[in-house]
Amino acid sequence: MEQRTAAAGLDELTDFLVRLTGLLLRSSGEGAQAIEPAVVGCARALGGGASLLLVPDAAALTVTAGGGTRTVTVRGFPEVFRLDQVVALKPLLADVEEGRVGVAEAGRRLTRIETAPAPYPWWLKFLGIVLFSLGFAPLMQATWYEVGSTAVLAALAAALAVAADRLPRLARVLPLVVSTAVSVVALEVFARDPAHGGPVLLMLPALFFFVPGDYLSAATAELAAGLITTGAIRLVYAVFLLVQLYLGVLLGVFATGNSTRGLFDVVAEPDMPRWALFLGWFVFSAGTVLAFAIPRRLYWPLLALVYVTVGVQSLFTKLVGEAGGTFVAAAVLSAAATVLARGRHRPPRLVLMLPGFFTLTVGSLGMRGLTTLAGGHVIEGFRDLLKLITIVTAIAVGMVFGAALTFTRTAASAQAPGSPTRSNGERGTPHGQEEKT
């Protein structure tokens, strides 16, 4: 009888930890550093133990309790598109680790988080992607023509992204389809006059939602923190996404009968006033909230962190150059998000960092470098790619440095800073799957 009771308790704990690990995996597009401390801490608080072998889309989870052991393989494709679940999960983890709830109640609350509908309807996600792109457009070219063309191209990209939520086959090739469609429309409608800037500069704001600059930076940060396997795999995946977007642009060039020589990288003369550039970050932050399902109450703190990041980067770029300015901005953003995230009722660090992180990411440099190379402009193309490597590294090291400055004894008890988690595994599927042994 005691053995059956112990086995039931072990199974209940295992079920909760498996579902928790799956949710953490699926929301780990910006890095997997927090998964192991969260799962191990919950297992310990609930009277058991746990260990993980982790890769970005899978984890081998071993659970022990009552003298028994269960080993489970959990799979979950890493994304960042339902951050409302990340926000709701933080107080649950705090309650579990503080002993406020048992495994049964924790399981019920986790079920409510997993099954909760998206906070915004599809049309608000559509609007969010458009606003996200419009806010980014002046960074490419500070012209009203860039903003106007982005409104049309981003609406096309957003329509395909929303459709992919309901069409799994489209979701598998979404970066390729989106970049091809945007390329065709941009070349046929908006890129006929060189005075409006290079074709890729007109396309990039509409593609920014799909450009894996954040994945590139997260992968480099994982490598810098000693998470060798997860960082290397995420880096390969980010490059694969970037190449898909690049290939889509080339398909658009071929479909419209243009030459790749037309993929020049010339910036148009700016005609936007400073107040418009300043207000652009309001639009960008609103788009981030809607596109990534972030609760509305977090808009203002996220906007403040965006302006802090942009301000620090602009100031220090003037003092120490672009790479140095990016490093300092990433460190300040990481430190500020770490401090502000302390406390069970505070937003998670990932959510606080995301909008500011996007202002630093440089996936667009990869796109510009590849397309410029395809256009035969070898020196300019390799210059962009070299700049990509430099800035991505500066962001990653800055993030690790900022987190180290604000690291607390509480965090150290969960996992020592920079301690590596090495594992091997195979690619998961977009939906969580488990295998028990």
Could you describe the 3D structure shown?
- This protein is α+β, with helices and mostly antiparallel strands.
- It is built from 17 helices and 4 strands.
- It has helices at residues 2-26, 35-45, 83-97, 103-115, 122-140, 144-164, 168-172, 174-190, 199-207, 213-224, 228-255, 274-291, 299-340, 349-360, 363-374, 378-405, 409-414; strands spanning 49-55, 58-65, 68-75, 433-436.
- A 4-stranded antiparallel beta sheet has the order 1-2-3-4.
- A hairpin with a 2-residue loop joins strand 2 (58-65) and strand 3.
- The longest helix has 42 residues, at 299-340.
If strands are numbered along the chain, what order do they take across the biggest sheet? 1-2-3-4
Instruction: State Rg.
Output: 22 Å
How many DSSP helices?
A: 17
Give the N-to-C terminal Cα separation.
Answer: 23 Å
Concise description?
By secondary structure, the protein is α+β, with helices and mostly antiparallel strands.
Descriptors for this entry?
437 residues; alpha+beta; 4-stranded antiparallel beta sheet; 4 strands; globular; disordered C terminus
Give the SSE map:
Elements: H1 2-26, H2 35-45, E1 49-55, E2 58-65, E3 68-75, H3 83-97, H4 103-115, H5 122-140, H6 144-164, H7 168-172, H8 174-190, H9 199-207, H10 213-224, H11 228-255, H12 274-291, H13 299-340, H14 349-360, H15 363-374, H16 378-405, H17 409-414, E4 433-436
Antiparallel strand pairs: 1-2, 2-3, 3-4
Helix pairs in contact: 1-2, 1-4, 3-4, 5-6, 5-9, 5-12, 6-8, 6-9, 8-9, 8-11, 10-11, 10-16, 11-15, 12-13, 13-14, 13-16, 15-16
